[in-house]
Design goal:
heterodimer, A: 459 residues, alpha/beta, Rossmann fold, 3-stranded antiparallel β-sheet, 17 helices, 16% strand, globular, B: 349 residues, mainly alpha, 2 strands, extended
Chain lengths: 459, 349
């Protein structure tokens, strides 16, 4: 039996080798720049021929990349990544619309083989790169897999009673207390909706609460309006008969959500992934302060544990983890003067040290990087109080004005709470300038990202 | 921590596009150095003071003596010429003047270029720290200076243009250095390797054919000196005859100090080359041995002249050169033998 399995695995390995496919999953919390990243990635690859700004993509620097094109992919049930629409948006000087659902795109790269042994067999080969985009919020549902409805309610009530979410939850909790009697079957729809409103409020409020379960309540994808999302945890103050019909429906829907939405998602997308990209918007937390920083840090640590499935045996058997590389990348580096990129990188590394440790311990290769998928600003030096300071110049997104911005100095060392309060930051979101999409988009370090992601695949 | 953010309206403030020398970013410790004990890699044995003060004084006074004697002689000579005929005197003094000006001029010029080699070592160390610390805005001006030095000797306009296109404002020093090494220096490395190949095969063939051991030695000295000159010119630091001597000494010391692993690898390559060649003839084996020695010399010279250290990938490999030498020499000798056989056959006919 053991030998048989080994042979089967070996055959599979050879096939994978011949298959020349690499599956890359891109995730990140909403607003971290996933769509812009994938659009830019596809754009850089498609325009590689005339490109001079990809010196760190080695196969390209060696002039071994012959041609790149988009090809149809096999997983027909996944929607296609809206590349053309995104480009069109950029042409109209708008940021492409954000990721609300899972999507996929496949790029095929034809290249010359460098390896002197393989070269004897064939001169050229191709590599199919599958890029899969999904909301990072969905990953936060991983703990649900181990919870039944009752325990989930307990955990949720614990979460609601603490921190900033306690204030925001009042309205939702009130909708229960006004309902003095038993929760009946007909109330479920309305209460679910107010539960969802509460979660959305957590996400969009100034408190920027990131750790929100269940993830699909915020980004439902194609489940919008489906009855599976019509459930809610029973708050401590509510009075529910555990043998009643309403309770049974809630349990049933929760279990359906867990078994038919969350589990297949993890099973399907994590069983086949080779490389994972996690995009992080560190500038947002720098703008918002210490509490947001802590919140993001904790959320990302939890999120990263879902890449770290090797822990328990049953999970291992189920998902057969194959991620061998995790790239944690801070996006929007064009909002920061280039001399601070190094500080930005160390800030990212410090923030995610714990998460990185967990993943690297499992034998996954972790890299951190600071990049900008679409560079929309210019780095300039300005004179202020007889001092030369390096700033970024661009069009402010909110009001469309031309500005030169010095965003504050990102510290190299970790900051204390006091320092966080004293230090001010003002990173500005820039609008897209007038760009042509017939040539490659301006970027910062996309070439390094490409090299990290797939560089080793160009034999 | 009191650097407040500032936002200007675009018209209010004069800006210039960033190029270089921005405010210094706090220099960060290299990651490797952060590991304790930090001092472990930083101790270094100083060079012994080879020349004593007495010796230096001797050299200075000797030079002074010879120069004053030469000036005195020249003065007397000019006077004598004037005594014979003023026109003759005028011509001679003009000649002396021209000799002095051109001589000193070319000496200084050669010295300046020659001096670059010793600066290269410092430069290499500086660029290495910039590379390790990922600072911003310090490397660009240095790389521009290096490019200027190169441009006096080699035409690198095309690769330089490619470098300038690929180097973005956002690149930090480490990235710039890497791009420069890949785009500009790689071309020079190729030129240098070609020169090494040419000289090594030439001398290998010469040694294989020459009948005298003494002639072999002279050949090796001559060819290797020629090669050193060419390589140093390729890297923009051409050496004067005097400087070449110093360079040779440096290269030889470096060869001796080369890491054991490298030596073993090189030695096995040599053995391999010889064993292939020894089946043809001992003289050929000697030739190949000399060829490999010269290419080792050449590669070591490249290392000394290159402003940016080789990485593991870009390091020139002795194996490539060895193969070429062996095939060339063996091919030449066998065709020669074949020709001899043919000629003999013709005679027999």
């Amino acid at each position: 039996m053991g030998v048989k399995q080994q042979i089967r695995e070996a055959v599979e390995l050879v096939e994978r080798g011949l298959d020349k496919n690499v599956r890359i999953c891109v995730t990140g919390l909403s607003g971290s720049g996933k769509t812009a990243f994938i659009t830019s990635l596809v754009n850089q690859l498609l325009h590689q021929k005339s490109s001079t700004t990809l010196p760190f993509w080695l196969a390209h620097a060696e002039k071994r990349v012959l041609a790149v094109k988009l090809i149809p992919y096999n997983d027909l049930h996944i929607p296609e990544f809206p590349y053309a629409e995104s480009l069109q948006a950029i042409e109209n000087r708008l940021w492409p619309s954000s990721t609300r659902n899972i999507s996929q795109i496949r790029i095929s790269v034809k290249y010359q083989i460098k390896n002197k042994w393989i070269k004897k067999l064939q001169k050229t080969s191709h590599l199919n790169i599958d890029v899969i985009d999904y909301p990072g919020e969905w990953l936060l549902d991983l703990p649900l897999l181990n919870l039944d409805y009752e325990n989930w309610c307990l955990l949720f009530n614990d979460w609601v009673s603490k921190g900033k979410q306690a204030n925001l939850s009042l309205e939702w909790l009130n909708s229960f207390s006004s309902d003095t009697g038993q929760i009946s079957k007909t109330d479920i729809k309305g209460l679910s909706e107010s539960f969802r409103q509460f979660l959305l409020k957590c996400k969009t409020s100034e408190e920027a609460i990131e750790f929100i379960q269940p993830g699909r309540f915020i980004l439902p994808g194609d489940l919008e309006g489906a009855p599976v999302l019509d459930f809610f945890p029973i708050p401590a103050n509510a009075n529910v008969d555990k043998n009643g019909e309403a309770y049974k429906i809630l349990v049933q829907r929760y279990e359906y959500y867990r078994d038919n939405v969350v589990q297949p998602f993890f099973k399907e997308y994590f069983s086949k992934v080779d490389r994972q990209v996690l995009l992080v918007d560190v500038l947002k937390v720098l703008n918002q302060g210490f509490d947001s920083y802590k919140e993001l840090q904790q959320t990302l640590s939890k999120l990263v544990t879902s890449f770290n499935y090797g822990q328990t045996n049953w999970l291992k058997r189920m998902f057969q983890p194959k991620i061998n590389k995790l790239i944690i990348a801070a996006t929007k580096s064009d909002q920061v003067p280039p001399e601070q990129h190094m500080a930005m990188k160390s800030f990212l590394a410090q923030m995610l040290m714990d998460a990185e440790n967990q993943v690297s311990y499992q034998g996954v290769n972790v890299n951190t990087l600071v990049f900008s998928a679409i560079q929309v600003s210019e780095s300039v030096t300005a004179e202020h109080d007889n001092k030369r300071i390096s700033c970024v110049k661009g069009v402010e997104l909110d009001n469309g004005e031309d500005v030169v911005n010095y965003p504050g100095k990102i510290p190299v060392e970790p900051m204390t709470r006091k320092q966080w309060n004293e230090q001010e930051f003002n990173f500005i979101n820039f609008a897209i300038p007038d760009l042509t999409t017939d040539r490659q988009l301006p970027h910062q370090r996309m070439d390094r990202l490409i090299e990290l992601l797939v560089g080793d695949k160009f034999l | 921590m009191n650097e407040k953010p500032i936002k200007f309206a675009s018209e209010q403030v004069d800006t210039e596009v960033n190029k270089e020398n921005l405010e210094n970013l706090d220099s960060l410790l290299n990651d490797e150095l952060k590991q304790l004990p930090a001092g472990i890699n930083s101790s270094k044995l100083l060079q012994p003071k080879s020349k004593t003060k007495l010796f230096k004084a001797f050299v200075v006074s000797l030079t002074g003596l010879i120069t004053s004697a030469a000036i005195y002689e020249a003065w007397l000579f000019i006077q004598q010429m004037f005594a014979i005929n003023p026109i003759l005197g005028g011509i001679v003094s003009a000649l002396v003047g021209v000799v002095l000006v051109t001589g000193i001029g070319s000496l200084i010029k050669g010295r300046v270029k020659s001096k670059r080699l010793s600066k290269r070592e410092i430069l290499r160390a500086e660029l290495k720290t910039l590379d390790a610390n990922e600072t911003y805005g310090k490397a660009r001006s240095k790389l521009e200076d290096i490019s200027q030095e190169f441009q006096q000797e080699v035409d690198i306009s095309k690769s330089l243009a490619i470098f300038q296109q690929s180097a973005q404002q956002s690149h930090n020093d480490s990235e710039l250095i890497k791009i420069y090494s890949d785009q500009v220096l790689a071309g020079l490395d190729k030129l240098a390797l070609e020169a090494i190949n040419k000289h090594a095969t030439e001398s290998a063939i010469m040694v294989a054919l020459s009948p005298l051991a003494a002639a072999d030695m002279a050949l090796v000295a001559w060819r290797s000196s020629k090669m050193l000159q060419e390589i140093s010119r390729i890297y923009g630091c051409p050496q004067t005859a005097f400087g070449r001597l110093g360079l040779t000494k440096q290269v030889a010391t470096n060869l001796m100090l080369a890491g054991a692993s490298e030596l073993i690898a090189d030695a096995s390559v040599e053995l391999l080359g010889k064993s292939v060649a020894a089946t043809v003839s001992t003289k050929v084996a000697q030739g190949i041995g000399v060829g490999i020695l010269i290419s080792r010399f050449g590669i070591q010279t490249m290392r000394l002249c290159r402003p940016i250290e080789f990485t593991e990938d870009s390091r020139p490999k002795l194996g490539d050169v060895r193969k070429l030498i062996t095939t060339k020499v063996v091919a030449m000798i066998t065709t020669k033998k074949k020709n001899q056989v043919l000629k003999q056959g013709e005679k027999d006919d």
